[in-house]
Amino acid sequence: MAIKGQIYDVSQSRMFYGPGGPYALFAGKDASRALAKMSFEPQDLTGDVSGLGPFELSALQDWEYKFTSKYVKVGTVKGTGPIEQGNVSTTSEIQEEAAAVKLNGEKAP
Prior knowledge:
alpha+beta, Flavocytochrome B2, Chain A, domain 1, 4 strands, 13% strand
C-alpha cells in the first residue's frame, strides 16, 4: 500500500489490509486521496491529491505519520495505477531494510 507515492509493507497487519480485511481495497494502490477523504469509494483510490482542502491534507499528513512510524517503507511509486512489478523503484537503503523484514512483518535478527 502506498501513501503520497511511498510504498509501505503492511503485511504485519494482514487482518486489516489482507483479503477480507476492512482496508483490503487499499492494498496494491496509492490510497492517498481515499485516506485524506476517509473514503472507501473506488474513484478515490488514487495518489492524486489535487483539489483537496486543508482539512483533508492534514488528515493525509496524519496517515503518513502513522504509516511511517508503524510500517517499513519498501519503495516508491514510479507511475500511476496499481502497484505492480515494474511499477516501483527502490533505493538500496530501502531494499536493505526490506530484506531485514520477515514475511510475518517481524525484523530479522
